[in-house]
Write a structure and sequence with these properties.
binds iron/sulfur cluster, alpha/beta
Amino acid sequence: MSARALEVLAVVPVKSLNRSKQRLASALGTRREAFVRALLAQTLFALAGSERVSGILVVTADPEVAEEARRAGARVLLEDADLNTACAHGLAEARSLQIDLCMIIHADLALLSPRGVDALIRGYVERRVQLESAIGLVRCKEGTGTNAVLLDPRTAFVPAFGPDSFQAHQRAVGSRAVELHSDEAAFDVDTASDLQALARFSISARLRPFIVARASEPDPTSLIGVPLESLVARASHLRDEGHGALVSYSRKVFLPLTRLCRDVCHYCTFAKTPRHAGQPFMSVDEAVTTAAAAAKLGCKEALFTLGDRPEARYAVARAWLADSGFASTLHYLAQVAAAVRDRTGLLPHINAGCMSAEEIALLRPVSASMGLMLESTSERLCLKGGPHFGSPDKQPAPRLATIAEAGRQRVPFTTGILIGIGETRAERVDSLLAIGKLHERYGHIQEVIIQNFLPKPGTRMAKAMAPSVDELVWTVAVARLLLGPYMSIQVPPNLNSGVLARLLQAGLNDWGGVSPLTPDYVNPEAPWPEIERLREETAAAGRILAERLTIYPSYAQAPEQWLDAAMRRSVLELSDGAGGAREEAWRAGRSIELPRSALSRRRVRSSHLTTVLRELSEGSVQDLGVDEIAALFGAREHDFAAVCEAADDLRAQTVGNVATYVLNRNINYTNICSYHCSFCAFSKGTRKHEGAERPYRMDLEEITGRVREARARGATEVCLQGGIHPSFTGETYLDILRAIKQAEPQMHVHAFSPLEVWHGASTLGLSLSAFLGLLRNEGLGSLPGTAAEILDDGVREVLCPDKISTSQWLEVIETAHNVGLRTTATIMFGHVDDYRAWARHLLSLRDLQRRTGGLTEFVPLAFVANEAPLYKRGRARPGPTLREAVLMHAVARLVFHPHIPHIQASWVKMGRSGMRAALRAGADDLGGTLMNESITRAAGATHGQEMTSEEMHLLAGSLGRILVQRTTLYAPATSEARASTDRLINTTGVQSWPQAFMTPPSAGSMAPAPSSTPTEAKCC
Ligand code: SF4
């Protein structure tokens, strides 16, 4: 039964907004209803984005809930019923619609994502294959309640939601109950501590504003009289909580599309009259040429700033637009922004003044974010004598309306206030609160700029006083206190040369856009600081400068919510695994040289990571959790160096100065595959003839011929795996194995991915244990732990929806260990995943290894994107950055120590220079010579098909390592190798052949291999 063919209805019962989540009243106060609405919107978004849910039915009596539901594309059943009755009505509706599968799900699941929903449904469908009448139950995180029920709506079921509902449902359903595990669906939000716990996750931007400890929040008006030092200390602490040591900036180019403006702000030198403006509009070519030059300098943002609606004031603007065939300035802007995006790859950020709903909709497909400074909510400033007199677009109401409409249309939005133009402190607080309120409603405010007025010659306010530094510091601190730890607070560095350290103390975390090419056209008298100087000044304050995109990370990581489909490819192309900017152009599988700046190891103040690392090295932390591991992947500069050094120390403790490799040959016996992994450029359907590789299948003669050749060249291992050919059964794999062992009995056969094992067992109707036992008895030496990709079902839903699930992969590997076969383990990373998914992957492997001890090594496989279909369709990042790729080796060493002794660096993915970086960051093994590498080559890698042992010797020698040829199971491969290694060991201070090479890990319950099994242990 295919899950895709099923009609799935999600039934979501919702109480009224004002009655829900009463237990959050003390934590959220008047914001409780807004939070309930945001939770509902998040749940509905996840369901609507799921590929497996075909309809959503919200059962409610609340008209506001109904409106929210309809906006999300759900149907509404208006019912004033208790929870269980509402569910029963939903089920009845599903029956009458002849739906195949019904999922009753709560509306308060803050972590739920479309992929999580898909994974949940898939898990249920898999269980239903074994038990047709299965009723899937998802337990809440406390273990007592039920957060979701999945069932065939024709099945008899009486909902029993309420206290201890999980047990109640289990009792009522009896043997039909199957428990489904989903971290996302388990996390409901009922209490203040749930709210606090959310801070650990990368949650939707729309929920972020609510994760603030209300008790510590100040009364806004009381802030006005608080001593500055006290405000600054509190604000600084709060910023550290939300942003750690990172201070971000965006590398941008400034494109002033037009300097004509219908407004007349009294402090502005940007706007020009037609007499002084020259051409009324920048041409498309001019914009593209400037943006292309900026792209060469590493810029990623194209900031379009322009006057407000010049055609409303100037005939010359109207005539130019009419002659050029554009209805308005914003129509022209849409065309230029699209050209810049498509021809340079830069991400447009649009500052086009006040906009209507239609105009925002017009510009959303061509921009990654938009902005409009609120400036001030004070209407006083618009009166005669005020700086905004005569500027209709500076009225607070249309500005607030534009910001709200951007929220409704889910545009990541930048706003801010301008200080020192005659407003009072109370009015500043009011402006910041207005921004905060809009953010609570829509979750779209990605940053708040605190811009200080500077008097400019030639303006009406030329003689006005600029606000003092204290006033600016006060405003930054108050903004941080009012808007919470996670809001990005920005101050332009070019307007504040000499006081950056004070501003950092006051709680800012962002320097905004900085251009290495164009001036700040709004403040031309204030040049941008050079980025390197900004980095030095930031470092001097103990902080790390990190590049971001114009769209902030939490928005970039939820593209389905925050980006038009036309922008997603461009954003993914420039993003790293945390949604930040890729700071180097290194590409896995292709780059030869390392970018010089990529792995710089500056010395700045140590951060919380240093504490984690110290505790690890002291042995006071046994178990890193998801949060700590994900934070390690975010390490930069000093932190990066510290993580790599800690991993390198553990590597030296474990294996001494020895680096290893295996002389092997890859044999991929077919590239014909009936699976649909979206990342795979290797597989071909039987009828497909596209691309360089044609479909092929090797016969036994060819396979054994290749094995003999490998033996003749000294190989000790052949590594075999391939596509899942539609005609393959378990017998095929057994035949291949028998043929090889008959041809070369001494050859170690390292073969069959967990997917192939699963396929082989199921086609023969055998248990995994029985099939693996057969393979072992026919001479299989060990299994490659490939097909793991990312052990996170949400990510697998995108990468390989029809492949074995996380738990099935782990089951195959654990069963292999239990029958005496050892395996490797891999991760393929850098596509649609993130640091938390990587962390979960590592933890799954660590836990498995503790149980069995059967993993010989861990092999990070950086995603090679070029030919991967998922990447070519614009739905994946172009692989990890070099920083991330190196960190994967280092973090793996830290997490797995002492359970998995070997971390392999893949030359196919990392290249020779990348290998050196990985070997200095915890890796100790260079992998195989391979002879015929073809899977990564099909994905676009250019590092060749073979790396000779001579090249490996040179590489290891350049790092002062002793290179030793090993067997698959980490024994010295030959007596010569052993003798020469012993000699080398004696001359380099390592006392003996490291223990890690002698025996399988002692921990775990791995079964001893039967004596008849020709394992390579005898080589030790
Ligand atoms: S990764 Fe493997 S299973 Fe997936 S399509 Fe490619 S060859 Fe087939």
